[in-house]
């Protein structure tokens, strides 16, 4: 398959002259999740968009292909980003491919092992800052105001443009928009990108309805939910450990225009969804990604999807027919691969039993 620029070029800010820096990202599977459906209950279909299967293991690649292509087109010689890990991994890989310099600022000791390995092996200049993600972002904003280095955080509009292709793929695959779009919220670029993608697909008549955007932050790092900056964000989901999201206001617009919500889930709820995805659906994600499923399970328990369906049925005859005949479709974005954070997986489960290299010892343990 082609990458997202080649596939969706008519909807992206590129021309035939744009040099395409791609790793054939995108085209990730949309997987039906029957076990999670059984927990949600009612007439729902749950679909998981497994973004961990992108080339560097996260959704960032959709935005980075465009950001690096446009940077090269503009003659840029270096890119820089602040990161909780995935942005740095993706920027490092695409910059390597573009043969330009990549500088990344990460919170010291604050990013998962796999992501650090990626940024380093792709040859980025990695600076571990004695501070958190928000400190790193402030620094790179300041640096790019004064120096000729391209910022590739999601403040760069090309990142959002590339990431909106995730919405196109979901609609292409479902033959329409889902009713709900569940997504983890960190720096809040992705929820904005998906909402933009859905709205554009509706404008050109590819879909005839829009989803409600339901975003989830980690309880200890939930500035949008709390309505104020969180100075010392805390969560085991290091990818979304962000106290002052760059796209805060735009994320609120996506929430409000779509009639959705942004709420918090606890680390315990995140870990529960994380283990459940791996053990019941066979899908290994990093903790931050499980926030979307944790949020859906939480809202299902509160009866949110049932009461929302009733409201839909009370609408026009056409909507009522659709609501009666079709199941509610929920798309959950699984933003990053579980292998990014092996330490968390091992800390969350029992260690393997150690046995002697003897047939009897092994048979005894496995119950034969
Ligand atoms: C797995 O890499 O912010 O709300 O610096 O890695 O668009 O920020 C990562 C964010 C969700 C949140 N899931 O997305 C970074 C960074 C995973 C992530 C998010 C991130 P946004």
Description:
By secondary structure, the chain is of the alpha/beta class. 46% of the residues lie in helices and 14% in strands. The protein has 17 helices and 10 strands. The strands form 2 sheets. A 6-stranded mixed β-sheet has the order 1-2-10-7-8-9, sandwiched between helices. Strands 5-4-3-6 form a 4-stranded parallel β-sheet, with helices on both faces. α3 (60-73) packs across α7 (157-163), α7 packs across α9 and α8 (165-174) crosses α9 (189-203). The radius of gyration is 21 Å and the shape is globular. It binds ligand AN7. Ligand AN7 binds next to α4, α9 and α13. Residues 58, 83-87, 154, 184-190, 239-240, 286, 288-289, 335-336 line the site of ligand AN7.
User: Element order, helices and strands?
Assistant: HEHEHEHEHEHEHHEHEHHEHHHHEHH
- Unreliable residue runs: none
Radius of gyration: 21 Å
Binned strand content: 5-15%
Bound small molecules, deduplicated? ligand AN7
Describe the largest sheet: 6 strands, mixed
Structural class comes to alpha/beta
- Give the terminus-to-terminus CA distance: 46 Å
Helix proportion = 40-55%
Based on CA inertia axes, which overall geometry fits? Answer: globular
Average pLDDT taken over every residue: 95
Count of alpha/pi helices: 17
> How many E-type strands?
10
Q: What is the spatial order of strands in the main beta sheet?
A: 1-2-10-7-8-9
Summed up, what is this model?
It is built from 17 helices and 10 strands. The chain is an alpha/beta fold and 368 residues long.
Structure keywords:
binds ligand AN7; 17 helices; 368 residues; single chain; 10 strands; 6-stranded mixed sheet; 4-stranded parallel sheet; globular; alpha/beta
């Amino acid at each position: 398959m082609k990458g997202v620029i080649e596939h969706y070029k008519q909807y992206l800010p590129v021309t035939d002259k744009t040099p395409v820096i791609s790793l054939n990202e995108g085209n990730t599977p949309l997987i039906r999740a029957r076990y999670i459906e059984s927990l949600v209950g009612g007439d729902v279909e749950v679909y998981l968009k497994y973004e961990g299967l992108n080339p560097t293991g996260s959704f960032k690649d959709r935005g980075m292909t465009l950001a690096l292509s446009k940077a090269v087109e503009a003659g840029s010689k270096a890119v820089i980003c602040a990161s909780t890990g995935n942005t740095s991994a993706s920027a490092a890989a695409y910059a390597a491919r573009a043969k330009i310099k990549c500088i990344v600022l990460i919170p010291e000791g604050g990013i998962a092992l796999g992501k650090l390995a990626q940024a380093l092996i792709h040859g980025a200049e990695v600076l571990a800052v004695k501070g958190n993600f928000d400190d790193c972002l402030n620094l790179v904003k300041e640096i790019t105001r004064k120096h000729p280095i391209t910022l590739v955080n999601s403040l760069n509009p090309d990142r959002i443009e590339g990431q909106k292709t995730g919405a196109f793929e979901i609609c292409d695959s479902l033959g329409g928009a889902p009713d709900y779009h569940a997504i983890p919220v960190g720096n809040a670029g992705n929820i904005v990108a998906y909402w933009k993608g859905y709205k554009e697909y509706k404008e050109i008549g590819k879909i005839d309805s829009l989803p409600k955007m339901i975003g989830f932050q980690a309880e200890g790092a939930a500035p949008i939910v709390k309505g104020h900056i969180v100075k010392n964000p805390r969560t085991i989901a290091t990818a979304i450990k962000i106290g002052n999201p760059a796209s805060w206001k735009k994320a609120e617009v996506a929430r409000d225009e779509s009639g959705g919500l942004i709420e918090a889930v606890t680390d315990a709820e995140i870990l529960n969804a994380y283990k459940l995805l791996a053990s019941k659906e066979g899908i290994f994600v990093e903790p931050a990604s499980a926030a979307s499923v944790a949020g859906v399970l939480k809202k299902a328990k509160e009866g949110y999807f049932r009461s929302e369906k009733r409201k839909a049925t009370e609408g026009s005859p056409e909507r009522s027919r659709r609501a009666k005949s079709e199941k509610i479709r929920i798309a959950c974005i699984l933003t990053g691969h579980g292998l990014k954070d092996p330490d968390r997986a091992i800390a969350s489960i029992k260690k393997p039993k150690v046995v002697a290299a003897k047939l009897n010892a092994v048979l005894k343990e496995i119950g034969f």
